[in-house]
Amino acid sequence: MEAALDDALAPERPERLREAMRYSLLAGGKRLRPILCLASCELAGAARSLAMPTAVALEMVHTMSLIHDDLPAMDNDDLRRGRPTNHKVFGDANAILAGDALLCRAFEMVAERSPGVPAERRVQVVAALARAAGAPGLVGGQVVDLESEGKLVGLETLEYIHLHKTGALLEISVTSGAMIAGAPGELVEALRRYARGIGLAFQIIDDILDVTADSATLGKTAGKDLIADKTTYPSLLGLDESRRRADALTTEATQSIEAWGEAAQPLMALASYITARDR
Amino acid sequence: MEAALDDALAPERPERLREAMRYSLLAGGKRLRPILCLASCELAGAARSLAMPTAVALEMVHTMSLIHDDLPAMDNDDLRRGRPTNHKVFGDANAILAGDALLCRAFEMVAERSPGVPAERRVQVVAALARAAGAPGLVGGQVVDLESEGKLVGLETLEYIHLHKTGALLEISVTSGAMIAGAPGELVEALRRYARGIGLAFQIIDDILDVTADSATLGKTAGKDLIADKTTYPSLLGLDESRRRADALTTEATQSIEAWGEAAQPLMALASYITARDR
Question: What interface predicted TM-score (ipTM) does this complex get?
Answer without folding.
Answer: 0.94
